[in-house]
Design brief:
4 strands; alpha/beta; 6 helices; globular; 4-stranded parallel sheet
């Protein structure tokens, strides 16, 4: 099944980043892949540190089971920053954004932010999205630097 294959890909990608000694990792999920990102986090919550990990959800589509108790996937008081990008040109996306916000806040996510963008397929939108994510990462998830051995 797709979900199992996708989780294996995420696992292998994260293993590769660790082998290459990357310390700052951003997991970016679009629409239904947000559920896969949460599944990965659930399985690896003890390994994800706040200064070196961030989660970005673009137009996330989460089943009600995720929203009812986000702590099942994130644990209590999830420390890494989370950015939730809401599509203002989609009425359903805006409608569910409040439910997601409440679910993340109930779970005790310390650094949760929603960004509202009108998502379309133009190059101007893509540039704006990249700038918004980059700006957010610089302030909310500046990362960490390891001193040389």
């Amino acid at each position: 099944p797709y979900a199992q294959r996708a989780l294996v890909h995420i696992e292998k990608a994260m293993e590769h980043l660790k082998q290459e000694s990357y310390q700052n990792i951003v997991l970016l999920a679009h629409r239904h892949s947000a559920e896969l990102a949460l599944e990965y986090i659930k399985a690896h919550s003890g390994e994800l540190s706040s200064p070196g990990f961030a989660l970005i959800l673009v137009e996330p589509r989460l089943a009600e089971s995720y929203l009812l108790d986000m702590t099942k996937w994130l644990g209590q008081s999830f420390a890494p920053p989370v950015m939730d990008i809401v599509n203002t040109s989609d009425p359903m996306s805006e409608k569910y954004s409040e439910e997601r916000k409440l679910a993340f806040l109930r779970a005790g996510v310390r650094s949760y932010r929603q960004a509202f963008l009108s998502i379309n397929q133009s190059e101007q939108f893509h540039d704006g999205l990249v700038k918004r994510i980059k700006s957010w990462l610089e302030t909310a998830a500046p990362g960490m630097t390891l001193s040389p051995k």
